[in-house]
Each structure stands twice: as C-alpha cells, then as structure tokens.
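1st attempt posting a full record on here, be nice pls
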Amino acid sequence: MMAYVQILRPLNLAIVVLTQSIIYYLVLSPQLSQAALSPIQFGLLTLCTAIIAGSGYLINDLYDVASDQINKPEKSYIPRQIEIPKAWRYYYFWICLGMIIAIYLAIETHNLPLLTLYPLSIWLLWLYARTLKKSGVKGNLVVAFMTSFVTLILIIAERHQLMKDENADLLHLLFGFACFSFLVNLAREWVKDIEDIEGDKVINSISLPISRGIETTKKWIHFCLATSIIAVIAFQWVYPHTFHQSIFAFVFVVAPMVKAAIKLSNGREKADFHKTANFLKLILFTGMIYLLLFSPIVKTYGIAQ
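the predicted structure (as tokens):
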C-alpha cells in the first residue's frame, strides 16, 4: 500500500502545497483589496495542483520502467510493487478526480482559465512522458514550465485584481519569481540528464547530453544560471530593496548559484551531478524565501527592514 503513496512523491507534493500556500497567504493575498478565492477554494486549487504534479510523476514512471531499472532501481515502484495495469487505473483515478475539482472551481469562481489549464497540464505531462522526454530540450522546457506553473496558476486565479495599476509591482514580483523558478529548474533538468545519461541511452533518448555532449550541456546550464544571476542583480535596481533584502539576495541566492556553476564545472562522476541537482533544488527554496521578504506580513515584524 505504501508504494501507492510513495509513487506520487508525497514530499514533493507537500513542497508544492507549502509553496503555493506561502506565496498566496504571505505575499499575494495580503496585498489585494479583495481575493478571488475563499480558503476552501484555495485549498481545492492546491489539491488540484498537487494532483497534476502527482499524476505527472505517475505517468512518467509508467513510461520509464526500462530506464528506471538502470538509473534508480531501488526507487522504481512499477512493476516491482505495483503491476502496470493497476498503475494505469490509479493514474486515471487521479486525473478524473482533478478534473472534477477543476470544473467545480471554474464554476464557483467564474474563472474559465482554471478549467482549461487542468487538461492542458495533464496533456503536457502525458506528452512529456510519452514522447518529449526522449526529444531533448523540448521535454526539459515542459518540466521547467510546470515548476513555474505553481506560481503562474495563482496569478491566473487572481488576475483580475493583479491587473489593476496599484498591483503592478506585485504582479511583476510574482512573474519574476515564476521566471526564476523556470530558469533554475531548467538548469536542474539538464544536470539530471547528465546524471542519467547511461539509462537514457538504453531507451534511445536524445537528451541534450546525449545529442550535444556533456560539455555543451554544461555551457547551457551555465547560461541559465548566469541569466538568473543577472536577473536577480537587475531586480535590485528596478525594484526597491531594503538592506536586508539585498544582502539576502546576494548571500543566499546569487552566491549559491555561482557555487552551483563551479560544482558543475568540476563534476565528473554521477554522484557529483546528483549533488549539484539537489543543490539547485535548495536554491529554488532560498529563492522563495527571497520572495517572502517582500511580503507585508514579514515587513510588519521588521525582518526585511
């Protein structure tokens, strides 16, 4: 029974729910005159987002049985613990439940995009697992986009309020974080492709490291990290910062990205790239803390003064 829980990556889903909750209740909602979502509706939105993510992990495992036996045999649940037909039924259960929630939310909030985004997301993740994952860069772009989707769906849910002139800075802040998440996760996807290169060769994947080589892939990763660093520094000039906000940005966001670039350059073994991928996940977390420093609730307690 635990395999049915673990295959959905509960820790990752908890991070998705926690990230959306923190952004919505500490950054977004306090700065809006009237939020579009009630607490129950927001809870259903986060549940729907978690279902999208969980179903993505599940469909990915269904199409990755062969490569997972090589890349991570100790973490593969299909077919060792869950038979393939049962895994498919489990997948259909979750996507149907998510669709019901999406329809309900769209009707209750009079927000049609919330309905159209759900099947689009499910289709993109299915397409990624079925085809795009083996096609290199296009698959990486889908995964990176789905990471930024955690923030973008909140923007769409509250778009009517965010489009008002008085909320322009808040919209730019949230969109900037979504772009940051996209770039860092894109870099992380390419690091993971380097880590999994042997298993990907078995399934005839044309991932970037296979098609262009590891050194070229490293250059693209460095480009993503450099772009992120420049964007964070530029953001210091465009958006008003306190002293503590600027220090945090340089010490916990910019400096770790520089360190990640160095670790990547020096990496040679699979374990090195695994550590770099985990380090980039930590940078995504510190990036969210950086976003929190612009929350009026955080400022109230003088943390970001």
